[in-house]
Amino acid sequence: MERCPVRKSLWQEHIFDLVRRTATDLPADVEGALRRAQMREKKGSNAWWALAEILQNIRLARRHEAPLCQDTGTLSFHVIVPPGFDTNALVGAAREAIARATRAGYLRQNTIDPLSGAPYQTNVAPGSPIFYFRQGARKTVDVRLIMKGGGSENVSVQYALPRGEIGADRDLEGVRRCILDAVWEAQGQGCAPGIIGVCIGGDRASGYEHAKAQFLRKLNERSPNRTLARLETAVLKQANKLGIGPMGLGGRTTLLGAKIDALSRVPATYLVTVSYMCWALRRRGVLLGPEGGLKRWFY
Fold first, then answer.
1. What is the CATH number of the domain that holds 105?
2. What is the pLDDT of residue 1?
3. CB 3.0 to 4.6 Å from 197: which of 10, 12, 58, 211, for a disulfide?
């Protein structure tokens, strides 16, 4: 696809709006899950008040178009493009949109040089933002954005089975034990109630990539694989009996969702990757036409 300044300008505008909406407006399915979680807690309890503050935070962020969290996270774009599409032009437009969103205050200077400790003023830097491209059959461009904060990233974990200390063998029972161990070890440090994305199999890199991609699924979306769907239901139920609760203050809701998928593995390796997402599951998407026009919003 040939380069077109008008098209690139439209891409930049729509991606700027995508970043703005993702940073400031929590998706309806996540907000609804938080409301239902508060209803399950005893009124006046620490858990009830923690969720009340979270819900108030969501309302204020939406009303004032302010970031839901001071940690505006790592920005990961998951993009489906048509054959022959110029991905370089889209990457350039996205980087310009991110720099603009940073100047506008929708993103803080959240990208740090690990050698000097100095922030990158535009959030455009080596490794930021992250892009995952794949080719589709349609002429449209599907752009999904996930913003993931550092606290939840710190408590994400990858297990190599067998894992003797938690009695986890190379089977689904071992997988279940790993997931619940990850939730237990996270306690409230990942800003619970959280959502977990899990990849069974793969390698060190693909495991985390695929686990994080599960956050693109809505909370009410069950795995099409019956075995994994049953595991999702079981893990969610059991995690919410751990008593960790919102922000680790105790309560009935430790997780809002569990999304699990699997990749093939080699005989010597059996990995279970658990990516933890805080309550602020910031994900949005936009569908663009081949000339850059807006078709629809996702979530």
1. 3.30.360
2. 43
3. 211
Taking a C-beta distance cutoff of 8 angstroms, is the pair 170, 109 a contact? no
pLDDT given at position 6: 57
Paired with 260 in beta bridges are 198
Total residue count of the chain as it appears in this document? 299
**Overall domain count for the chain:** 2
Q: For residue 7, what pLDDT is reported? A: 74
- Residues 93 and 21 occupy one common structural domain: yes
Closest to 244 (Cα-Cα) out of 253, 233, 257, 232? 253
Residue at 49 is within a domain = no
Tokens of 159: 């297990």
**DSSP codes joined into one string, 118-176:** PEETTS-BTTBSEEEEEE-SSSSEEEEEEEE-HHHHHT-EEEES-BGGGTB-SSHHHHH
Range of the domain at 255: 151-277
pLDDT at site 5: 54
139 in a structural domain: yes
Pair 228, 189 in one domain = yes
Question: What is the structure's pLDDT at 83?
Answer: 94
Counting as low any pLDDT under 50, the low residues of the chain are: 1-2
Amino acid at position 160, single letter: A
Q: What pTM was computed for the model?
A: 0.95
**Cβ neighbours for 165, distance < 8 A, ≥ 6 positions apart:** none
* Conformational region of residue 277, where left means phi above 0, alpha means psi within -120 to 50, and beta covers everything else: beta
The answer to whether the beta carbons of residues 24 and 68 sit under 8 Å apart is: yes
Q: Are residues 285 and 273 in the same domain?
A: no
